[in-house]
Amino acid sequence: MDRLPKIALPVVFIAILAIILISKSAITIGSGEAGVLYKTFGGGVVTDEPPLGEGFHIVAPWNKVYVYEVRQQEVFEKMNVLSSNGLDIKLDGSAWFQPKYAELGKLHQEKGEDYVQRVLLPTIRSAARSVVGRYTPEQLYSSKRDAIQAEIFEETKRIVDDEYIQLNEFLVRDVTLPPTIKDAIERKLKQEQESLEYEFRLVTAEKEAEKVRIEAQGKADANRILSASLTDKILKDKGIDATLELSKSPNSKVVVVGSGGDGLPLILGNN
Questions:
Q1: Residue range(s) defining the domain that contains residue 225
Q2: Do 245 and 213 share a structural domain?
Q3: Do 169 and 78 belong together in one domain?
Q4: Are 64 and 51 part of one and the same domain?
Q5: pLDDT tens digits, the chain, 271 residues: what are they?
Q6: CA distances from 165 to 138, 148, 161, 177 (A)
Q7: H or E element: which one contains 170?
């Protein structure tokens, strides 16, 4: 009975120590996350093995795990850039991105947990300034927004691909021009629209006039051909046929063949 307390004390101590070690060693990686293992006595950041995936992991208490979100994320950026003619333009954009899963260890080792601020955003700003500087304010305001968006995406992607970042999309949210420039562009666009509408009406009227001319010419050509084909003999034959048809009517009449002034049959009587 005297030995029990002496035995129980070390057991309790070992149990408590085990609980502490397990609590320090247990790591849970959440959904959409991955862990980079840092081995204090084993060469530092592990880059030659896949990162720790979602779920429960036991890690030696002297090691560390850095958790990263690996699902697609979005970052917003407001930028002041210059157009091709030196005007100040405000550009609002957002990027869809995620760290490259297989290279998460290298990203942590070379760029760190704040890689968005260190790498992604500076690259987006540089690409936006380079791309916007090729266009005029009129192009930025109207027809070239999709082209600008695509070019910023391509230039940013080309750089961050080598920095262990996967860029999925870049979106231009808004382009703000100086008020005076914006008003001038809107007036110009309105005038161009009115000019296009006027040209359309002119073209439509010209097509209608051409249609009328073609129809009139067709009728004139048809009448000319018909007149050329109606010889005296054909006209007499047509007159004889018409007279004979008329003579068949039930009314009494006298038909004198060849007595007309033009040699056609003469019909006498109408009763």
A1: 183-229
A2: no
A3: yes
A4: yes
A5: 455 566 666 666 566 655 665 656 788 999 999 999 999 998 899 999 999 999 999 888 889 999 999 999 999 999 998 888 888 889 999 999 999 999 999 999 999 999 999 999 999 999 999 999 998 887 877 767 888 999 999 999 999 999 999 999 999 998 888 777 756 665 666 566 656 666 777 777 778 878 788 877 877 777 677 666 656 666 566 666 666 665 666 654 555 445 455 555 555 555 4
A6: 33, 21, 6, 32
A7: strand 165-176
